[in-house]
Structure prediction request, 152 residues.
Amino acid sequence: MKVTENSRQAQRKAAMAVLAHSEPAEISGRLSAIELPDHENLREPENGLVMVRGRIGGDGAAFNLGEATVSRAAVRLSTGEIGFGYTLGRDGAKAQMIALCDAMVQSGQYAGLIETKVIAPLRAAMAAKRDRRSAEAAATRVDFYTLVRGEG
Prediction:
């Protein structure tokens, strides 16, 4: 039982990472291709601030770096699953789409559909973009080498 709960949480976490890094138009386009379940907004999209903390060198004493704007929303499916969506910036619509996807990932009825039609294509697009950027950076790489002279 514990393994199943851990794997569900890992799947949910992975889905939220993909959605948070995707463009709102990409998420919207993927969601429009499927039939969305009945749902209600528990928390309308709203904007706020969070304190961003940092550490010098990754292991130094924590300090307050500054504030960042975030948007959040909460959605409940008619079957009872509750999803939460958070995103950096002032994009309430994106936070609401993330919340809807979060609720659907938790649903036994919609989890497979949302994974194959929304999450997997977004993940593949992110990987392709990352690979393209890596290839562009590799094309500009310069290899330096030193020749050892026979003198001395």
In short: Residues 41 and 75 are 5 Å apart (CA to CA).
